[in-house]
Structures
1.
Amino acid sequence: MDYLLTDEQKMIKNLAKKIAEEKMRPVRAELDEKGIFPMEIIKEFAKADLMRTYIPKEYDGLGLGVFELCIIIEELARVDGGVAVSFAVNALGSFPIVIMGNEQQKKKYLTKAASGEWLTAFALTEANAGSDASNIATTAVKDGDHWVLNGTKQFITNGRVADFTTVIAQTDKTKGVRGLTAFIVEKGTPGFTYGKDEHKMGIRSSVTTELVFQDCRVPAENVIGAEGQGFLVAMKTLDKSRPGIGAQGLGIAWGAYEAALLYAKQRVQFGQPIINFQGIGFMLADMATQIEAGRNMLYNVARWIDSGATKYSKESAMVKLYCTDLAMKVTVDAVQVFGGYGYMKEYPVEKMMRDAKITQIYEGTNQIQRSVIASNIVKDV
Ligand code: CAA
């Protein structure tokens, strides 16, 4: 099916595919097995200007949108979900500044993010603030022209490798969601250190780190938006980045479907390729249909966001929910098509099943997506 991509979009998609096939596919099993973050592959994305896509033109970007970001993530995730999210989180970490940063911050940080010279991360989650994102315990106290941060952020993708991180901290406990503020914290700032890197079930080629702030002094000029706008910064950022996780789920599902289809054509049982059996043919038909439905939804929503839509929390949550639930379903079925071989590490589908699981959890669990959708449906009535 023709998805009506422009020549520029086709070029970007092909570039992402080329890097995925040439640089990622040969090493993905090893990265997964050893849990290695492949910095040299991330640098390939920078060299190919893929990190410029989602940065505005004025700051050395290509001024493209969520759509182009999603087609890149989809191609990368088709081969390796972990590397795909490591790329995607550079957009997540840049979006707070794109959306609510001031001119000085945009010039300083976005130009470096666009060139890929600086990697980024987004630090909202804490031990007791996962789904309940406003229940943040990390504090920031004003001291002259600085803010002093104390606390620990957990499960931060790109945490250890990011050169700057958006950190959401509590600046006034009495004000609830309006008592949170967003800060840009640079790597190497005194008082900012790393805890453990997580040992994960899937996406093992990505790095997930605990960030520790102990009397970490951050210049007041690094506040994104205004004091008290941290929750808004976080929510607006997630609205824009959640389709990217949908794209990650879709890409993982697509990779698993392709592998299962190939296998079903080659594997002979009872004297014929197993694809000839209705039990397998129907499974593949369902996988293909779900992927097609997810892709159509993702592409439509991403195009609509890029057309200048201002309120898209519901649609963004729907894409994330639908495409990541289908990722789980399709990868589980892909393992089933492979039978006993699917359970073994020599074949790629067990990894894809492990990689798919996190897409239903991070950037808001799929229960939280349903809650966002439900609250918006109620408001629409
Ligand atoms: N845009 C603008 N404003 C918004 C908003 C949005 N999308 N969502 C909420 N708000 C506003 C509300 O209108 C409300 O304003 P008023 O007080 O004026 O009415 C205020 O913010 C508070 O909203 P809620 O009452 O809805 O807030 P809540 O505390 O009930 O939480 C939530 C809402 C949607 C559950 C939110 O906490 C949430 O999104 N949780 C999930 C967190 C999450 O996604 N974490 C992901 C971490 S990043 C990550 O995972 C990256 C990675 O590793 C790859």
2.
Amino acid sequence: MDKLVEQNTSSPITVKKTGVNLSAEISDIDLTQPMDDATFEAVDAALVEHEVIVFRDQEISSENLIDFGRRFGELTVHPFSPNDGDRPYLILFKNDENNPPFGTDCWHSDETFRECPPMATVLCAKDVPEVGGDTMFASMSAAFDGLSDRMQQFISGLEAVHDFKVFKNLFGESEEDRKNLIEYELRYPPQVQPVVRVHPVSGKKVLWVNPQFTIAIKGMDERESRSLLDTLFHQALIPEYQYRHKWRNHTIVMWDNRSVQHYAVHDYYPSRRFMERVTIEGDKPVGVPAADPDSLRKFKFHAKTGSDSHGGHTAPKRQFQRELDAG
Ligand code: SIN
């Protein structure tokens, strides 16, 4: 049998591996119909193993997409993506000359600015351009494996700060807009995530930083943090870890958001591209063990008291602290 083709005769579906590090096509399934347990388990296992799974020629309704997603868990509502008002968990990417695509042409895992990012995303092509508008994926488990042993050891246990920074551009400049932005910053405060997460099902180690949402490595100065992040972000750009998906109408792609990043190629504008998407609730990422913070020599600054850890004395207050104290 071809090395890239896998067939399990006892499985209710056919899974054909289409990339060395990630992606498989699934056939012998009809997504307009409810999935029985055996089919669900086979699809779920294929998702974890291949990280990106593709279903071709599935002319499904929005309800079918929602039902398919719900088979894996609760659907989540993205605070900043365009959605269907009555069913806010149904994202509608309806792009054309009057509505250019926004914010998805950057490598990312979905919503890592939340404490519990989605475990998976399902995207359905309703009306795609003749050429262009591909979606690219990178296996971040392969990307982690591809790092040197030294780098793997160095980043294991580190933590990074994630923020919804790209979506701040959706807020305007007026005073009202600024107040609204502050409200959303309070609702979605920056989250600390492990730099290397352990996939909860496969146990694989996954590089868990992305250029869309990761803003800093905790405990490093800005220059160190920036250069380390640049090095780690570069892993997703290496073709060996990538799969580039070319869409046809009625194709559905599901990705394991715990182990892949994706990038929507915005080359098709001003053509029309219409996609529907749902995301499925995930767990709080668990990292590999952290270094003992007391073993670190530097950055023992305590924001609350303004004192450093060396003398223990109280430093003069900063102007914003005085203003806040004065009410
Ligand atoms: C996204 O989910 O980030 C968008 C993917 C796409 O439109 O291809």
3.
Amino acid sequence: MNNGKEKTQKLTTASGRPYVENENTQSVGPRGPLLLQDYILHEKMAHFNRERIPERVVHAKGSGAYGTFTVTHDISKYTKAKVFNKIGKETKVFLRFSTVGGEKGSADTERDPRGFAMKFYTEDGNWDLVGNNTPVFFIKDPKKFGDFIHTQKRDPYTNCKSPTMMWDYWSLNPESLHQVMILMSDRGTPIGYRFMNGYGSHTFSMINAKNERVWVKFHFKTMQGIKNFNDAEAAEMKSKDMDFSQRDLVESIDNGHFPKWALKIQVMTNDQAKKFKWNPFDLTKIWPHKDFPLIDVGVMELNENPKNYFAEVEQSAFAPAHIIDGISYSPDKMLQGRLLSYPDAHRYRLGGNYEQIPVNRCPYMVNNYQRDGHMAVSGNGGSAPNYWPNSFDGVYADQSYKEPAWDLEHSIADWYDRNAEGENDHYTQPGNLFRDVMDEEQKKSTISNIVGAMKGISGPKKDQIIYRQLCHFFRADVNLGTGIAKGLGVNVDEVMKHLKHEPAKI
Ligand code: NDP
């Protein structure tokens, strides 16, 4: 059919053969059966059947954009990373935002943490900082991750989301309380992606030109200001526009309103780490600003929408393992677990050559001897040697990139060491958040959001789960606990009777 447009390009098969008929399959006469030889029908149907790839198990619903990171302050005393080596230096970035628990078609305004995954295309390789809009997380050991995420997904029997599963798990894992508090505040329902902070969340390290290491936290503060939906507004937006955050991001960039974030870091020396009241590598804890002030680094601006959602956003793959010279890991257990699990997830979803997909590809040098495999689409090393060492190419392992050693205090930590002082204080920081950071309005909405969410707990274990979780809120702050108990119609004296018991014994 001709739609009246100027004819500029011939229609072709995937192999490039021009063809004449894209709607009617060849048949034996106008009313007869179809001919097998019309392979274009097969090609179209077969490709359509294969349009879906496995969705991400977590962070399935997402939005992405390209932008620029610009250095505004000199931090060379902490890091030799080339991305930071000159004030005014610009580096291309790709950022993917997401919700966490929902499927690919889920609503953008659900109460959920938001993913904040960044790829910096640097001359020393791609640096991925795969964070969230929260500085902490629900668990501090990756062995718990699968169990925890199951509670955020669908009940195996009803196939519905289950507040009972969620609160049962949280109440039995009090280390989740800090993140639960943030999630239940109005920051759990940000207005799209532009009005929220991003955090590297984990503790990383930075290494300077003298090969000295410091521990580091990354903070991306929104320059649009924090703006959140309250619970009712988020629910209303869910019914109006499931894709609110996606639409907001695309439209704001198309309209030239480029969102920006100020990158700041917190720095801790190894001596400070040894004296720190909490484990500085515990993902359920923050470093207080008054002890570890924010240091300005630069500004990230998003200014270009991807041309094709599937190619660039769905196929984008971030891995905390992708660090660059001058930036490194820490003993943060969750980070250590993610170093393995993220590339593993990408190999499953996208294949072993996922780093050859243009959005993931390093635009600078890539020299190694990995060859072949599905979709080896970027030259596959051409005629160069495919083994190392060899007598032909000039590829060498540059020793100037060698990292300084880590001094470890323990040989192999046994599980029981995890109860050392400062390891299991799950209450001070969530209490500080409620008491010292939230104003009266925020306190009220946090309590009301928690009450609303806990009202969904049902079934034979309902009272047990409610008492167990209420005890955690009381341990963090008496006013917080009292407010929630009242909202749920629970007698405070009854909760007090349980307070002396371990969570698992309630
Ligand atoms: P500060 O008063 O110096 O900082 C408070 C921080 O809390 C600010 O970063 C603020 O972000 C953020 N914040 C405000 N409301 C919320 C909320 N509802 N959910 C999550 N974050 C919020 O305090 P401290 O550094 O001493 O920390 C006190 C408590 O603040 C912590 O226990 C923690 O719960 C929370 N917090 C601390 C962070 C840190 O890295 N120190 C980071 C984020 C939260 P903003 O400035 O953008 O408004």
4.
Amino acid sequence: MDAISYERAGDIADALRAAQQPGTVFIGGGTNLLDLMKGGVTRPAKLVDITHIPGLDTIVSLPDGGLRIGALVRNSDAANHAWVRERYPLLSQALLAGASAQLRNMATVGGNLMQRTRCSYFYDTAFTECNKRQPGSGCAALDGHNRMHAILGASPQCIAVNPSDMSVALAALDANVRVSGPRGERVVPFGEFHRLAGEHPEFDTTLQPGELITAVDLPPPLYSEHTHYLKVRDRASYAFALVSVAAALQFDGATVRSARIALGGVAHKPWRATAAEQRLAGQPLSDALLHDAAAAALQDARAQRENGFKIALAQRAIIRAVNQAAGRQGGAA
Ligand code: SF4
């Protein structure tokens, strides 16, 4: 049995000081971390409990009309908060699509950003080949079961996908992640928070050692009217996405002024479909335009042995999500 030390932080400075010891991990809701520890996937030397830090469990309105959601706000509280529902329904929908009611009541916004892939080889330590768990050991999924794995941005080192629904909406909404660390505070644009596996799949994010997520900032709500989060999965609830789509639109009459589209379940990070967004912008929405945009979004997709179906599925999900966001009956997916 490994010995683990535990410390409860009273404030952010306290947490940062306590985290100076190598092998320290912050714990909030613990819904993913405790599973990883029980399975022997993660073996921290020290846990720093951040759940008693005041001020991190609030949602406040920002002067520019945006929102600041504290890192300790529970997923269910964020999803059901009146300001989130009114100004960012895409985020509310995505949060409610995640996990189960019990888990959403426990899981925090900061923890959701940090949850690790659900690749079964990563969780099962009987498999010795996993570059994410043990750098340099190989990747059992490459020649194994990879139905759930990446079709975009994959690396020969790791083809795992990010499991978060919330993060797909935050990617589409251009959120920012606020971080405190030994060198002070910084703000990370959402697209730069999670990383592709590349040569170092052991790192899921660009967080530096000892840094603590304190909040997520949402920009002014430009996309509150026409949004839809579509999650395609094997079961109706409590299942991770095969493919998910966060779609948000602005219109000038019948013409799309701008579009924001992000995909989940397809890459090591939430995948922003900028090529599709560009195809839609400035055009009246039509079936032909949507098919063109969906094809553009997946033009660089590469299938693994078992997940070729995801490419067509993602295209059809984009079409359906955008149609739903627009309130349009179109060529269905
Ligand atoms: Fe490990 Fe990534 Fe390969 Fe899964 S896909 S076995 S997480 S290296």
